[in-house]
Write a structure and sequence with these properties.
Blueprint: H1 12-31, E1 70-78, E2 85-92, E3 97-103, E4 110-115, E5 120-122, E6 132-136, E7 139-144, E8 156-159, E9 167-173, E10 179-187, H2 194-197, H3 201-204, E11 247-254, E12 263-274, E13 295-300, E14 307-310, E15 323-326, E16 329-335, E17 341-344, E18 359-362, E19 369-372, E20 385-389, E21 392-395, E22 401-402, E23 416-420, E24 426-430, E25 443-447, E26 450-454, E27 458-460, E28 474-478, E29 485-490, E30 502-506, E31 509-515, E32 518-522, E33 536-540, E34 547-550, E35 563-566, E36 569-572, E37 591-594, H4 614-619, H5 626-631, H6 633-648
Antiparallel strand pairs: 1-10, 2-9, 3-8, 3-10, 4-5, 4-9, 6-7, 7-8, 11-12, 12-13, 14-16, 15-18, 16-17, 19-21, 20-23, 21-22, 24-26, 25-28, 26-27, 29-31, 30-33, 31-32, 34-36, 35-37
């Protein structure tokens, strides 16, 4: 036994019953070795950590192990730009266990798996399988592809192993830079699972002669030599076989099959029977014999019908307007244990149901379109070849005008085209003569308009007509001699008073008498009955731009001995708004000195020095007293005025 357990203390008769049962079991197993494994031999549902309470399971899946019984292989495969198709990236050797293959991030690539013989397992022959369980190389492989919208995780393939042949991992390349993480373990030496040993026929019922060691029933503390003996050690006290039990557990019936088609499973039910009569008896009579417990066996019914497996719709073929979406529809049939794997079959196997659509119409949004917003304009020329235009715009599905790139330029309607108005023919056209003569007396002229016209619509330059054939525009007229005719006579306008901005200009206006072609200046009063022409007018040569403006100087701050006066200076445009474009070098001063002359004291005849030595009074600083200010008024006044000026400065 690979794992020895300390047995509890039992009473003498209890030990004898157990010894009898074990001896009978050993005898039956030697006489009738089992042809089928017990149910838990194939039970893959129990993980490597179950039943290992209180101990740590190492990387090899061994309870309380140190990881030395296997070798871990792992790594990350970084792939660059490849051609579209299948690319082999990893070989997984035979015997591999705890296999895990994972895309590090979601991509449009797919993982694929083949056996060493080239048989496709997952996503082979350009057929993308649905996520699920697949059986190959002696193990169950789980293929997962997370939801494409909510998950960012990539595809994954996991398997408990061990594999019985080499597997080849491929990537179906469709998007650059795929990254795949892998890991698996390989046992260094054959490892005996302590938990499967405790329940398998191979450990309990060896195929060669062996001996079983039982604890000493008289040992009250439950200790025995079992803890230090080898499993194949021959005991010093052999056990005498007991008679075969009278009652035993026998398989009587089964539960219904779990699958209505294909391969399923069912549970085998046991009953306690009397060996001699094979009649069913109460179960407590078999309490001293081993109960194998419920067993599960496979069951098969009619084959499952084929079905249509529908893939996901592709993206719409057009970003706007009507397009198409495609999806893969294949006929599949379940196979393998419990119907957990599928295989692609001919479409004729699915004829009993209607095949789903593989193509559908899609439209993400309405495309922008061209719209003609106006009719053609008139031709640009009255005759000959010209051009005409119309307005063509690109409009989105909301009716708003967008850039032309939003529409198909190949379908853009013309917005400019040539137009032919026929051969040009030109002729001189003229108006009637004016009724008034240009002069009130003596010789004058009458006028009319003469133009070169084409197509009776537009006037064109005169050089299109023959200048020699042009009709006269002036005709002489004479209203008789001029005698004593009064009129205002004006001279030429003079120069504008300002080089820029607004100014004024003037001219001479005189009253003249015209007599037989002679002009004579006379008094303005004689022409007072006639409207007098203006002798002055405003003029404007050009804009001055920004220039400096200033106000008048203020009053001087002092009347003598030097003061200062100020004025405001601004840079203004022609419209009298503030500007910063004036030349700073030409800015007028806004402050200057004034009244720099010496102050002349006012002479007060009553203010005189009445003391002959007032200089001493000033030096002694006695002017602060009113007596001395009166006695030495002139001297003290000069001192007081000088001190005042000094304080002001």
């Amino acid at each position: 036994m690979a794992c020895l357990m300390q047995l509890p203390t039992w009473r003498g008769h209890q030990w004898r019953l157990i010894q009898h049962f074990l001896q009978m079991t050993l005898l039956l197993s030697l006489l009738c070795p089992p042809t089928e494994p017990v149910p838990w031999d194939n039970d893959s549902s129990s993980g490597p950590g179950e039943g290992c309470e209180g101990f740590q399971v190492d990387v090899c899946g061994v309870c309380a192990g140190d990881g030395s019984s296997c070798e871990l292989f792992s790594g990350t495969l970084f792939l660059s730009v490849l051609s579209v198709g299948y690319h082999k990236i990893l070989d997984i050797p035979s015997g591999a266990q705890r296999i895990k293959i994972q895309e590090t991030q979601k991509t449009r690539n797919y993982l694929a798996l083949r056996t060493a013989t080239g048989e496709s397992v997952i996503n082979g022959d350009w057929v993308i399988d649905r996520p699920g369980h697949f059986y190959a190389a002696g193990t169950q492989l789980t293929y997962k592809r997370p939801n494409e919208i909510r998950s960012r995780a990539g595809e994954s393939i996991t398997a408990p192993g061990p594999t019985n042949q080499e597997l080849h991992l491929f990537v179906i390349y469709q998007q650059p830079n795929p990254t795949v993480y892998y890991e698996y373990i390989l046992p260094k030496d054959p490892i005996t699972d302590t938990y499967s040993d405790a329940y398998s026929y191979s450990s309990v019922l060896p195929l060669v002669e062996s001996h079983i060691i039982f604890p000493d029933p008289e040992n009250s503390d439950g200790e025995s030599s079992m803890g230090s003996s080898h499993p194949n050690q021959v005991p010093t006290d052999p056990i005498t076989p007991e008679p075969v039990p009278q009652y035993s557990w026998v398989a009587m019936t089964t539960t219904p099959c779990s699958a209505t088609c294909g391969t399923g499973s069912r549970q085998v039910l046991f009953s306690c029977v009397e060996r001699a009569t094979q009649t069913t008896v109460p179960g407590d009579l078999c309490s001293y014999t081993s109960h194998s417990g419920p067993q599960v066996e496979e069951c098969q019914s009619q084959p499952c019908p084929a079905f249509w497996d529908v893939g996901e719709w592709s993206e719409c073929s057009k970003t706007c307007g009507p397009g198409f979406q495609y999806r893969q529809v294949i006929c599949q049939r379940t196979q393998g244990h419990h119907g957990n794997s599928t295989v692609v079959v001919a479409t004729s196997h699915c004829d009993n149901t209607e095949m789903p659509e593989t193509t559908t119409v899609c439209q993400l949004k309405i495309c922008s379109e061209w719209q003609i917003r106006s009719d053609w304009t008139e031709c640009s020329v009255p005759c000959g070849v010209g051009q005409r235009r119309r307005e063509v715009v690109c409009v989105d599905n909301l009716g708003d005008i967008v850039s032309d790139e939003e529409c198909n330029m190949a379908l853009r309607p013309q917005d400019l085209q040539n137009c032919d108005k026929g051969v040009c023919a030109s002729s001189w056209f003229y108006s009637l003569w004016s009724e008034r003569c240009s002069a009130d007396c003596a010789e004058g002229s009458r006028s009319r308009s003469v133009v070169c016209m084409m197509s009776q619509t537009n006037s064109l330059p005169l050089d299109n007509c023959d200048e020699e054939d042009k009709p006269d525009e002036l005709m002489p007229c004479d209203l008789g001699p001029c005698t004593q005719r009064l009129e205002w006579y004006t001279g030429a306008w003079g120069q504008c008073s300002s080089e820029c901005g607004n100014g004024t200009q003037s001219r001479g206006v005189v009253c003249v008498v015209q007599n037989n072609g002679q002009l004579e200046v006379t008094s303005d009063d004689r022409c007072s009955h006639l409207p007098r022409p203006p002798s002055g007018q405003t003029c404007y040569l050009k804009s001055c731009g920004a220039q400096w403006y200033m106000t008048e100087w203020s009053s001087c701050s002092r009347s003598c001995e030097g003061g200062f006066r100020v004025r405001e200076v601004r840079c203004l445009r022609d419209d009298q708004t503030t500007s910063h474009d004036c030349d700073p070098a030409l800015e007028p001063a806004n402050q200057e000195k004034c009244n720099t002359h010496t102050c002349t004291p006012q002479i007060d005849e009553s203010c005189r020095d009445m003391y002959y030595n007032c200089v001493v009074v000033v030096q002694a600083r006695l002017c602060v007293y009113s007596y001395y200010r009166t006695t030495c008024c002139a001297s003290c006044s000069r001192v007081i005025e000088r001190d005042t000026l000094h304080r002001i400065r």
